[in-house]
Protein backbone atom coordinates (compact mmCIF):
# COMPACT_ATOMS: atom_id res chain seq x y z
CA UNK A 1 0.00 0.00 0.00
CA UNK A 2 1.36 3.39 -0.99
CA UNK A 3 0.96 6.48 1.23
CA UNK A 4 -1.63 7.81 -1.22
CA UNK A 5 -3.58 4.53 -1.08
CA UNK A 6 -3.58 4.64 2.73
CA UNK A 7 -4.96 8.19 2.82
CA UNK A 8 -7.56 7.23 0.20
CA UNK A 9 -8.72 4.29 2.33
CA UNK A 10 -9.00 6.48 5.43
CA UNK A 11 -11.00 9.05 3.47
CA UNK A 12 -13.25 6.28 2.16
CA UNK A 13 -14.15 4.94 5.60
CA UNK A 14 -16.95 6.37 7.70
CA UNK A 15 -19.17 5.21 10.53
CA UNK A 16 -21.46 3.05 8.39
CA UNK A 17 -25.11 3.45 9.35
CA UNK A 18 -26.71 1.03 6.92
CA UNK A 19 -25.16 -2.41 6.41
CA UNK A 20 -26.24 -4.82 3.70
CA UNK A 21 -27.28 -8.00 5.57
CA UNK A 22 -26.83 -10.02 2.38
CA UNK A 23 -23.12 -9.25 1.98
CA UNK A 24 -20.49 -11.23 3.86
CA UNK A 25 -16.75 -10.90 4.31
CA UNK A 26 -14.52 -13.45 2.66
CA UNK A 27 -12.78 -15.85 5.00
CA UNK A 28 -9.42 -14.26 4.17
CA UNK A 29 -10.64 -10.73 4.88
CA UNK A 30 -12.18 -11.73 8.19
CA UNK A 31 -9.07 -13.63 9.28
CA UNK A 32 -6.94 -10.58 8.46
CA UNK A 33 -9.14 -8.45 10.72
CA UNK A 34 -8.95 -11.02 13.50
CA UNK A 35 -5.18 -10.95 13.10
CA UNK A 36 -5.26 -7.16 13.43
CA UNK A 37 -6.84 -7.60 16.86
CA UNK A 38 -4.32 -10.20 17.96
CA UNK A 39 -1.47 -7.95 16.78
CA UNK A 40 -2.79 -4.76 18.41
CA UNK A 41 -0.26 -2.95 20.61
CA UNK A 42 -0.78 -2.30 24.32
CA UNK A 43 1.18 -0.80 27.18
CA UNK A 44 3.83 -3.26 28.39
CA UNK A 45 2.27 -5.72 25.92
CA UNK A 46 -0.28 -6.73 28.59
CA UNK A 47 -3.24 -7.03 26.17
CA UNK A 48 -5.90 -6.35 28.84
CA UNK A 49 -8.80 -7.34 26.62
CA UNK A 50 -10.96 -10.00 25.05
CA UNK A 51 -12.81 -9.57 21.78
CA UNK A 52 -16.13 -11.37 21.55
CA UNK A 53 -17.43 -12.14 18.06
CA UNK A 54 -21.19 -12.47 18.38
CA UNK A 55 -22.69 -14.66 15.67
CA UNK A 56 -25.86 -15.95 17.37
CA UNK A 57 -28.80 -14.02 15.79
CA UNK A 58 -30.86 -14.21 18.98
CA UNK A 59 -28.09 -12.74 21.10
CA UNK A 60 -27.55 -9.99 18.54
CA UNK A 61 -31.25 -9.14 18.65
CA UNK A 62 -31.03 -8.77 22.43
CA UNK A 63 -27.87 -6.71 22.11
CA UNK A 64 -29.69 -4.44 19.68
CA UNK A 65 -32.23 -3.78 22.42
CA UNK A 66 -29.29 -2.66 24.55
CA UNK A 67 -28.01 -0.43 21.72
CA UNK A 68 -30.87 2.03 21.32
CA UNK A 69 -32.24 -0.14 18.53
CA UNK A 70 -29.31 0.52 16.19
CA UNK A 71 -29.73 -1.69 13.13
CA UNK A 72 -25.98 -2.11 12.64
CA UNK A 73 -25.95 -4.58 15.53
CA UNK A 74 -28.08 -7.08 13.64
CA UNK A 75 -27.57 -6.14 9.98
CA UNK A 76 -23.78 -6.11 9.77
CA UNK A 77 -22.08 -9.34 8.79
CA UNK A 78 -19.99 -9.36 11.98
CA UNK A 79 -20.31 -7.85 15.43
CA UNK A 80 -17.30 -7.59 17.72
CA UNK A 81 -17.69 -6.64 21.37
CA UNK A 82 -14.53 -5.16 22.87
CA UNK A 83 -14.16 -6.03 26.55
CA UNK A 84 -11.48 -4.89 28.99
CA UNK A 85 -10.01 -6.44 32.09
CA UNK A 86 -11.68 -4.95 35.14
CA UNK A 87 -8.33 -4.96 36.97
CA UNK A 88 -4.68 -5.83 36.38
CA UNK A 89 -3.46 -8.22 39.05
CA UNK A 90 -0.03 -9.75 39.73
CA UNK A 91 -1.47 -12.99 38.34
CA UNK A 92 -2.38 -11.22 35.10
CA UNK A 93 1.13 -9.84 34.83
CA UNK A 94 2.75 -13.21 35.50
CA UNK A 95 0.54 -14.84 32.88
CA UNK A 96 1.84 -12.34 30.34
CA UNK A 97 5.45 -12.77 31.47
CA UNK A 98 5.09 -16.54 31.06
CA UNK A 99 3.80 -16.08 27.53
CA UNK A 100 6.55 -13.60 26.69
CA UNK A 101 9.18 -16.01 27.98
CA UNK A 102 7.67 -18.83 25.93
CA UNK A 103 7.65 -16.86 22.68
CA UNK A 104 11.13 -15.39 23.18
CA UNK A 105 12.61 -18.69 24.38
CA UNK A 106 13.54 -17.43 27.83
CA UNK A 107 12.95 -18.67 31.36
CA UNK A 108 10.25 -16.70 33.23
CA UNK A 109 12.81 -16.10 35.98
CA UNK A 110 14.95 -14.16 33.49
CA UNK A 111 12.10 -11.65 33.16
CA UNK A 112 11.65 -11.18 36.89
CA UNK A 113 12.99 -7.62 36.79
CA UNK A 114 10.66 -6.68 33.96
CA UNK A 115 7.71 -8.22 35.80
CA UNK A 116 8.58 -6.19 38.89
CA UNK A 117 8.60 -2.94 36.90
CA UNK A 118 5.18 -3.69 35.40
CA UNK A 119 3.70 -4.76 38.73
CA UNK A 120 5.05 -1.66 40.46
CA UNK A 121 3.53 0.56 37.80
CA UNK A 122 0.14 -1.13 38.08
CA UNK A 123 0.05 -1.24 41.85
CA UNK A 124 0.50 2.54 42.08
CA UNK A 125 -3.00 2.85 40.59
CA UNK A 126 -6.31 2.15 42.28
CA UNK A 127 -8.41 -0.75 40.91
CA UNK A 128 -10.71 1.79 39.27
CA UNK A 129 -7.76 3.55 37.64
CA UNK A 130 -6.42 0.22 36.37
CA UNK A 131 -9.78 -0.59 34.81
CA UNK A 132 -9.90 2.81 33.11
CA UNK A 133 -6.33 2.30 31.89
CA UNK A 134 -7.35 -1.06 30.42
CA UNK A 135 -10.27 0.58 28.63
CA UNK A 136 -7.94 3.12 27.04
CA UNK A 137 -5.68 0.30 25.89
CA UNK A 138 -8.66 -1.46 24.32
CA UNK A 139 -9.46 1.61 22.24
CA UNK A 140 -6.01 1.27 20.68
CA UNK A 141 -7.12 -2.15 19.43
CA UNK A 142 -10.38 -0.68 18.13
CA UNK A 143 -8.47 1.96 16.17
CA UNK A 144 -6.14 -0.61 14.61
CA UNK A 145 -9.12 -2.84 13.76
CA UNK A 146 -11.03 -0.05 12.01
CA UNK A 147 -7.99 1.22 10.11
CA UNK A 148 -7.18 -2.33 8.99
CA UNK A 149 -10.74 -2.79 7.79
CA UNK A 150 -10.58 0.42 5.77
CA UNK A 151 -7.29 -0.69 4.21
CA UNK A 152 -8.95 -3.79 2.74
CA UNK A 153 -12.24 -2.12 1.80
CA UNK A 154 -14.39 -3.35 4.67
CA UNK A 155 -16.88 -1.08 6.41
CA UNK A 156 -17.14 -0.62 10.17
CA UNK A 157 -19.14 1.32 12.69
CA UNK A 158 -17.91 1.78 16.27
CA UNK A 159 -20.78 1.59 18.74
CA UNK A 160 -20.53 3.50 21.99
CA UNK A 161 -24.29 4.10 22.10
CA UNK A 162 -24.81 0.90 24.04
CA UNK A 163 -25.64 -0.17 27.58
CA UNK A 164 -22.41 -1.89 28.67
CA UNK A 165 -24.07 -3.54 31.68
CA UNK A 166 -26.78 -4.93 29.40
CA UNK A 167 -24.12 -6.32 27.07
CA UNK A 168 -22.31 -7.85 30.05
CA UNK A 169 -25.54 -9.57 31.09
CA UNK A 170 -26.32 -10.94 27.62
CA UNK A 171 -22.75 -12.17 27.12
CA UNK A 172 -22.45 -13.73 30.58
CA UNK A 173 -19.49 -11.62 31.64
CA UNK A 174 -20.38 -11.40 35.34
CA UNK A 175 -17.46 -12.74 37.37
CA UNK A 176 -15.26 -13.17 34.28
CA UNK A 177 -12.92 -10.29 35.08
CA UNK A 178 -13.91 -8.56 31.83
CA UNK A 179 -16.48 -5.87 31.07
CA UNK A 180 -17.84 -4.37 27.85
CA UNK A 181 -16.44 -1.02 26.78
CA UNK A 182 -17.40 -0.67 23.09
CA UNK A 183 -18.69 -2.68 20.13
CA UNK A 184 -17.97 -2.56 16.41
CA UNK A 185 -20.17 -3.64 13.50
CA UNK A 186 -18.34 -4.98 10.45
CA UNK A 187 -19.55 -5.63 6.91
CA UNK A 188 -20.45 -3.76 3.74
CA UNK A 189 -22.51 -0.61 3.29
CA UNK A 190 -25.77 -0.50 1.40
CA UNK A 191 -25.84 1.51 -1.81
CA UNK A 192 -28.37 3.95 -0.36
CA UNK A 193 -26.61 4.77 2.92
CA UNK A 194 -26.79 8.57 2.83
CA UNK A 195 -23.94 8.88 5.30
CA UNK A 196 -21.52 7.48 2.71
CA UNK A 197 -22.02 10.46 0.39
CA UNK A 198 -21.49 13.16 3.00
CA UNK A 199 -18.16 14.98 2.72
CA UNK A 200 -15.79 14.00 5.52
CA UNK A 201 -15.65 16.96 7.87
CA UNK A 202 -12.38 17.38 9.74
CA UNK A 203 -10.40 20.34 11.03
CA UNK A 204 -7.52 21.32 8.78
CA UNK A 205 -4.13 19.85 9.68
CA UNK A 206 -2.80 23.10 11.17
CA UNK A 207 -5.69 23.14 13.68
CA UNK A 208 -4.91 19.72 15.13
CA UNK A 209 -1.17 19.19 14.56
CA UNK A 210 1.55 21.49 15.86
CA UNK A 211 5.32 21.26 16.00
CA UNK A 212 7.76 22.42 18.64
Automatic annotation (TrEMBL):
InterPro entries: NfsB-like (IPR033878), Nitroreductase (IPR029479), Nitroreductase-like (IPR000415), Nitroreductase/BluB (IPR050627)
Essential cofactor(s): FMN
Gene3D superfamilies xref list: NADH Oxidase
Stretches of the chain forming a coiled coil according to its record: none
Keyword line: Flavoprotein, FMN, NAD, NADP, Oxidoreductase
Entry's family note: Belongs to the nitroreductase family.
Name by which UniProt lists this protein: NAD(P)H-dependent oxidoreductase
Amino acid sequence: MTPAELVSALNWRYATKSFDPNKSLSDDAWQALLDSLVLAPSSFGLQPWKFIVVSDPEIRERLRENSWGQAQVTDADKLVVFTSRTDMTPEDIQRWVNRLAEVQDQAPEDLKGYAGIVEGFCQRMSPEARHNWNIRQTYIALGQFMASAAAIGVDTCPLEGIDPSGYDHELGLAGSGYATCVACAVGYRTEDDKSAARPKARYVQSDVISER
